[in-house]
Amino acid sequence: AKVKLRGRDRVDAAFNLALAAYNLIRLPKLLGAAA
Known about the structure:
By secondary structure, the chain is mainly α. It has one domain (1-34). It contains one helix and no strands. The protein has one helix at 2-34. It comes from Rhodopseudomonas pseudopalustris. This is Transposase DDE domain-containing protein.
């Protein structure tokens, strides 16, 4: 159970990291389009 939970946390962390990176890349484009 511990290993499964740890793996799940790792997946969640990786997903959050990817989402943050995607937002960092996309945000300037949105701001540029708005401005």
